[in-house]
């Protein structure tokens, strides 16, 4: 026999399994990662007491200013995120909730992901060297470049590596370098022909850049909207599509003449 329930009683009874379901969902691991602004590194200087860029076979100049590559840090592929944590981080401007597959697209174990990221970094360094020497019309048979950056993986430092090599080799031809004494940061992949590609996580990288003193940020043009979303005060965005445009923009900033593409 079923007892008759009033409307308030019925609502209360139905709410019990719903509350249990919500509590279970809040504690269940979900396929998301939480990212935040990561480290930056000056490619014109040292990283862990080792020069990031070393060149042999050609004269190099003493650089000034900084060219800082930027990163994001994310919860590990084997770390479980829960609904309550994700809701909190969703509303923070210094956090980004991202599908785990977007952060770790290869899947696999932690070691496999680390190996993949290392391979991407090595490929990025090779492409950066080819792009820089090609831009400067220097032979890779005569000029040797070595790039070393510890504890960073992936391809997103390619543009900054390339600009660092060019700056050390006096790529603007004036002896004044590319930075004009500024702290310039940025992100972007690069291929051997000098084409700059998008990377993701730009809104967090701008925060890392400003935190570490940058006043200018080079961003792939395709990601301008993302870069503007949480742009820190005092950071100027420069839109980039290729290496030549990036160099020209830095020279224009240094000399105070010419056009600098903005977002």
Account of the protein in words:
- With 263 residues, the chain is α/β, with parallel strands linked by helices.
- The chain has one domain: Ribosomal Protein S5, domain 2 (2-Layer Sandwich), CATH 3.30.230.10.
- It is built from eight helices and 14 strands.
- The strands form five sheets. The chain has a six-stranded mixed β-sheet. The protein has a two-stranded antiparallel sheet with strand order 1-7.
- Strand 13, helix 7 and strand 14 form a beta-alpha-beta unit.
- Helix 4 packs parallel to helix 5.
- The longest helix is centred in the middle third of the chain and has 27 residues.
- The protein starts with 6 loop residues before the first helix and ends in an 8-residue tail after the last helix.
- 37% of the residues are buried.
- The N terminus is likely disordered.
List keywords for this structure.
6-stranded mixed β-sheet, single chain, two-stranded antiparallel sheet, globular, alpha/beta, 263 residues
Summarize the structure.
This protein is of the alpha/beta class. The protein contains eight helices and 14 strands.
Q: According to CATH, what is the topology?
A: Ribosomal Protein S5, domain 2
Q: Per CATH, which architecture?
A: 2-Layer Sandwich
Structural class by helix and strand composition:
alpha/beta
Number of helices: 8
Provide the number of structural domains.
1
- The number of strands is 14
Instruction: Sketch the major β-sheet.
Output: 6 strands, mixed
CA-to-CA gap between the ends? 70 Å
Tell me the β content.
15-25%
Helix content: 25-40%
Mean pLDDT: 83
Shape: globular
Assembly form of the protein:
single chain
Quick one: CATH class? Alpha Beta
Order of helices and strands: HEEEEEEEHEHHEHEEEHEHEH
Radius of gyration: 23 Å
Poorly predicted ranges: 1-16, 18-25
How do the strands of the widest beta sheet line up side by side?
A: 8-2-6-10-13-14
